[in-house]
Amino acid sequence: VSVFTLGTMRFLHGWDEPHDHLPEESIENAHAVLQTAFESGINLIETARGYGKSERLLGRVLPQLPWKRSEYLVMSKAPPTQTAGEMRAFVEESLTHMGLDRLDMFALHGLNNQERCDLAIKKGGCLEALEKMRDEGLIGAVGFSTHAPLPLLLSMLSTKAFGFVNLHYYTFRPGNRAAIDLAESLGMGVFI
Questions:
Q1: How far apart are CA 162 and CA 144, in angstroms?
Q2: Sequence-distant (≥ 6) Cβ neighbours of residue 135 within 8 angstroms
Q3: Which of 108, 43, 112 lies closest to 79 in space, CA to CA?
Q4: Rounded to an integer, what distance in angstroms lies between the CA atom of residue 107 and that of residue 178?
Q5: What percent of the chain is modeled with pLDDT above 90?
Q6: What's the Cα-to-Cα distance from 103 to each of 77, 148, 149, 192, rounded to whole Å?
Q7: DSSP label at 174?
Q8: Cα–Cα nearest to 91, from 52, 137, 44
């Protein structure tokens, strides 16, 4: 994974409704952004179910670019669901939108409070669905993204249920250093 990755939350007109309508201007913007990223050495594209048109734009543009699928990684995210079936439907929908048969990484999105964390790891729920899809080869590593307070973040990392975490850590938010250290000790990947 390249040190810098490409988040695709902000494609031009990417949030405009309806999300299945892809204006030519948006397609051109996504093409230019992806081409520039790949030419700059970025090899991980990050999106999410909730990022408006992002997955659909990726599905439209990626086949137009000269890079082989083996030359880049794709990660998507979705919020935790009540049932395993709902999560499976989310992942399958993401794959369809992007025209892919596999996602390299998938994250449970926004594990920001105890309720969402409990939902994420409940027995027979969405995490087990992701683990099953990983075993089937539909997705690779399973992780989570979070804005949670440090004690909850450390608790989620300590479950050892995830392969990576996407968190905030920078000059104005240095407090998550302990989470990065714990993730490193557990052999987890960290996205900032």
A1: 7
A2: none
A3: 108
A4: 21
A5: 91
A6: 10, 25, 29, 20
A7: G
A8: 137
- Mean pLDDT over 155-170 rounds to 94
Residue 148 CA from chain centroid, whole number: 17
Whether 166 contacts 141, CB under 8 Å:
no
Cα(34)–Cα(150) distance, integer angstroms: 34
Q: At 104, list the tokens.
A: 């390299």
Look up residue 124 and give its two tokens.
Answer: 């027979």
The pair of three-digit structure tokens given for residue 173, joined into one six-digit string: 């938010």
Tell me the H-state helices in 2-82.
24-39, 54-61
CA 8, CA 52: separation in Å to the nearest integer? 10
What pTM, to 2 d.p., does this model score?
0.93
In Å, what is the CA distance from 86 to each residue of 8, 78, 95, 158, 164? 24, 10, 14, 26, 22
Give the DSSP H or E segment for 47.
none
Asked whether 111 and 146 are in contact (CB, 8 A), the reply is yes
The candidate with the shortest Cα–Cα distance to 46, out of 138, 166, 175, is 166
User: What would the pLDDT profile of 82-107 be if each residue is shown by its tens digit?
Assistant: 999 999 999 999 999 999 999 999 99
The number of residues in the chain equals 192
Contacts of 138 (CB under 8 A, 6+ apart): 91, 92, 95, 101, 102, 103
Angle at 172 between CA 170 and CA 175, to 5 degrees: 70
Tokens matching residue 56: 């659909």
